[in-house]
Amino acid sequence: MSDLLVDLSQNPLFKQTVKNLGLPIPTPQKLARPRGPWVDRPLHDKVVVVRAAGELEGALAETLTRAGANPHVIGERTEAWRAAGEAYGRPARFFDVGEIPEGLRAAALVLDATGLANPADLRALYDFFHPWIGGLRSCGRIVVLGRPPLELSEPLAAAAAGALEGFIRSVAKEIGRKGSTAHVVYVSQGAEPRVEPLLRFLLSDRAAFLSGQPWYVTKSAKLTPAPTTRVLDGKAALVTGAARGIGAATAKLLADEGAHVICLDRPGDEAYASKVAREIGGSTLMVDITDPEAGEVIAREISARFGKLDVLVHNAGITRDKTLGRMKPEWWDMAVDVNLGAITRINEVLLKEHIASHGRVICLSSVAGLAGNVGQTNYAASKAGLVGYVRAMAPSLAKRGVTINAVAPGFIETRLTAAIPVVTREVGRRLSALGQGGLPSDVGELISFLASPGAAGITGQVMRACGGMFIGA
Amino acid sequence: MSKKQASPPRRAVIVGGVRTPFVKAFQELLKLDTIGLGKIAVSALIEKYHLDRAKLEGVVWGGVIFPGGAPNVGREIALDLGLHHVEAMTCSRACASSLQAVTIAAAMIERGDADIVIAGGSDSTSNAEIKLPQKVVHALAPVTMGGKSGAMDYFQALAQLAPFTDILPQAPAVAERSTGEKMGEACERMATRNEISREDQDAFAVRSHHRAAAAVAADRFLDEITPVTLPGGKKVFADTMIRADTSVDKIAKLRPVFARKGTLTAANSSPLTDGAAAVLMMSEEAARALGYTPKAALRSWAYVGVDPADQLLMGPALAMPKALARAGMSLKDADLVDMHEAFAAQVLSVVKMLGSAAFAKARLGQDQAVGEIDMDRFNVHGGSIAIGHPFGATGARMITTMANELHLTGKQTALLGICAAGGLGGAAVLEAI
Questions:
Q1: What is the interface pTM, i.e. ipTM, of the complex?
Q2: Domain A236-465: which CATH number of 3.10.150.10, 3.40.50.280, 3.40.190.10, 3.40.50.720
């Protein structure tokens, strides 16, 4: 499933010709993607330009230097940067606002906007990003940090905080053609120690296909020690629908981080599922998830082999597309039951006592579920249902340190999308800020992050892996 | 943090050591390979201490560049000296190889495996075997060594080698296998990252030469060096690279070697060197019974690994605190500190991190810095920049010099630190007897 335009756009001559002739052909940037498992310094030797005048200066100084970045700080020389720079041999360089050293290009731009008190303060966004945005490298990253608007008592401060989301969504669309992405991270008071793993992920190549969305970091689930490599060492994971596509890619990535992965798929797909399991040193479990006994069967397998399950990924799903007027009732029932009903039934059994404390549950939703799609009333209902489900489940699970989130993929290059007629497929691919489809592994990377101990700050949320789709929430 | 080590039931002691002069590679010692150099050091050691050859039980030898046909250099030395009954092994821990040899020998003695062991190491950079690139081997070996081959086979093998630029034999370089980076390039990055200036590096290099020159002038090394007789009959009596007359002004003119705008030069880096050093080690009882006066013992040692892609030569900043903790000491308790000088920038980086509370917190999990090093106690007779650095011999040189220093001055403890390729660090605490 190669993307001709992405391949062609790597050729400078093609790119220049398209530009000079003013042809209406998009030239999407080939995305930088990780080449192996998680590393200790994901930002090794990268120039990160940062303005940290807010409350997260200490966290940013520690995070960036520990991740191996060379911090270029807009603002005053402070103790936080000195100490972190000295400890990790990453002395920060300091600049005035608007000052740009000749020839310096940034791999990432990070703004701590936690201190904004009113709309006038939003000028800080313009002042920081305007001079630097042209010097952002391709496949660069932009991250703005703020406090969640709903946690701010001052309405004007809440307005400023809310504005960050609109800004980021627009910036994401402006920089997407160069493979760059943008995020806003809302950090609750007291959740500061949970920011580091998220920033390491968002600023790295692992977040290649994620863009233009808010991340809420809360302190509701307990943070346990978060390793930077082999993040799932010794953990047990179960991935449904693991025989192909996103499920197979996810199973592989979880295994790369040290997890034993149970590859679950329906009877009939043994050949594919066991091929995946063999490659990653995992095991298979052939169960039809719509079977009323499915939860019990899985529970027995887990109890017998691992005691408890640390990571549960509900990836299996189906489409039964027809416009509502033409849809048969079986098709409605089937889609809703596989995509939503089965998940809730299995969870009901497993969440009681088969998920380890500090476990991670991830449900695969879809951008279609957030935005709606012609011919997918059943599918979108089931996928949007998951959003309501994870939001409702999160608070009670957080008490045990367990997080539950939904992941909503956009256009991903899989067997399903390869079957779409060529014109529709071409349009689908380009309808995102990055101007291309994602790979199954791009979704897998997001799932792996949410499955990691460091993702404790994120629960009850829907995270998109859609390259900044023009449709959707 | 490491706990204090329990004292062993038997104590291994250092009776004394001796080394060859350290000579710039490809110069006077060109004709002596690592076995030849090691043989000179070991036989001189046996002679110096009138050791009964029958009583010697083992040789533990360190090295980095091994002769392909005889990698167990220690055994070859023993055989060449007619010591057939002496068991021997060879170990490699890059630049910490002979410190490793000494600690292996100490462990053997403490465990009761042996009473009298010679530990040491040698390297002859001059005799590094120039390797054929793998591409040549893979293309030609099947034809030349794989049975019947016709003329066509040779042509086909040669055709595989195009383009011919990457089949030239490569000059030996001290480069990391895992990162491909030369050690000097890695240290150049350390200089930048730890903000070590060219001026400070040059000043440190000059200090190393002046300290070493003062030691030479005071005949301090005379007892530690054995003259080498070359195959032609000529003799080399002393280290050849120490410069009493060097100055910051003189070496400030040198161009950087590893990066165009870099700070590392030939003068503030240790040179490629040929040489060998050997240390006579015994159990304390054996030494006393034979009438020797032991000079020092190892109170503790420690080895660490760091990511070579991060700061390749930062190992001693972690190994030295570990060895101190195992000895139940802090840095200020060490009367002497001796650190291998791979590069001035590396020494100054490690010294800076030992003094950094931020580093201690981040890397050692302790709030207090390991401590500031008192420069009056530091590398009192210079170091590898001035004296030279035959990779396998440096640890044994440092052990010898520090054991003698404790013995001569009446000081109690010495802390040693060595950085090594592969991101390794080694350290040891010597105590006077």
A1: 0.85
A2: 3.40.50.720
